[in-house]
């Protein structure tokens, strides 16, 4: 198990690459959630503006 974790002396680079990939994937998910929320809010405002401006 120790040999696997040490990765033949390159553990810092191997696990660092895995860690950076994980961090970037989580950041991407959070960014996409934020953008989705922003877009939905804009669409909601646009719909409300169109409905309030229409005379029936």
Q: Which spans of ≥5 residues are poorly predicted at pLDDT below 50?
A: none
Average pLDDT taken over every residue = 91
- Fraction of residues in β-strands: under 5%
Instruction: Provide the structure class.
Output: mainly alpha
Shape: rod-shaped
Largest sheet: none
N- to C-terminal distance: 73 Å
What does this structure look like?
The protein is mainly α. The chain contains 2 helices and no strands. The protein is rod-shaped and about 70 Å long. The termini are far apart. Keywords: Cell inner membrane, Cell membrane, Cytochrome c-type biogenesis, Membrane, Transmembrane, Transmembrane helix, Transport. Belongs to the CcmD/CycX/HelD family. This is Heme exporter protein D. It is found in: Cell inner membrane.
Please give a quick description of this structure.
The protein is an all-alpha fold and about 55 residues long.
């Amino acid at each position: 198990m120790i040999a696997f974790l040490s990765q033949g002396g390159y553990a810092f680079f191997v696990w660092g690459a895995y860690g950076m990939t994980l961090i970037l994937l989580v950041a991407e998910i959070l960014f996409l959630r934020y953008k989705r929320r922003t877009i939905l809010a804009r669409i909601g405002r646009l719909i409300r503006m169109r409905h309030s401006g229409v005379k029936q």
